[in-house]
Write a structure and sequence with these properties.
Blueprint lengths: L1 E2 L11 H16 L9 H10 L2 H4 E3 L1 H11 L7 E3 L1 E8 L6 H11 L4 E5 L9 H8 L3 E6 L4 H4 L3 H15 L10 E2 L9 H6 L3 H11 L3 E2 L4 E2 L10 H12 L4 E7 L5 H16 L2 E3 L2 H8 L3
Parallel strand pairs: 4-5, 4-10, 4-11, 5-6, 7-8, 9-10
Antiparallel strand pairs: 1-2, 2-3
Helix pairs in contact: 1-2, 5-12, 11-12
The chain binds zinc ion.
Length: 291
Amino acid sequence: MRQNKNGKGGAPGTPVGWALLVLLCAVALLLGRCVAEQTQRTAAKWETTIPNDYFAVRATANAEAEAEESGEGEAEEVMMLKIACLTFDDGPSSNTQAILDILKEADVPATFFVTAQEANLPYYPLLKTAVAEGHQIAMHSASHKYSQIYADPSAFWLDIKALRTALEPYLPVAGIHWLRFPGGSTNTVSHRYGGRNIMKTLIAQTEEKGYEWIDWNVCGEDATASHPDADRILKNIQRDSNGRDVCVVLLHDTKATGQTVKALPAIIAWYKENGYNFCTVEQMYEARDGG
Ligand SMILES: [Zn+2]
């Protein structure tokens, strides 16, 4: 099996073209299940940036051999590569080391959308370890206080600046350009503080600044007030992942999310059993861009 990176067979009407079309439709549909308030804007973002050709791979070894046997010439069978991006928000925390240990043991890369609250700072040296072990560090918020960061656009960017300053002693921040908005890009809590258009403005400014942003389409719901146990978190993920080829999985890394750590080996095992490949958010998009 190899990646179909050269665009061969990608024209509409060919099996690869049809497969890409089907995937595009699936991607358009898959959003909105996890975040009930998904807007058209978010769906459009996904539709235009989803790395389609990363997922279209030809089953060369088997299909070509079969075709040769049956005398049908070059095989055109197409397979979809299934992707799982595990993402951990709000860390680092007292649980980060355990998360890193599990990821290392399973040889799985993940993405950490970090904050710089007082509780996070003692664990900042672990971010260095995370990067050394192949994980991606990305921006979430310094304070994570909705009333503060969503008061107006300049407050939001001041907060991101504070986060980058906090990260600076540990990581080359120039290379950090992925962002996840607290509450997601379609949150409405922000309207209370910064008006109805605050997210629209922030999204536009994010793109102007050359940053990339991403939401999620699978929720562990591991940081809710009901404090779900590990089994419930796994079930939430299985429910949301059902029928999806691309899963961007929202989990949390705080001192209160010990059950996430407990669930993590089973989450990884389940995705592996179901044929998913793990990568960081950055890797998923780099693959699309041929990088
Ligand atoms: Zn968060």
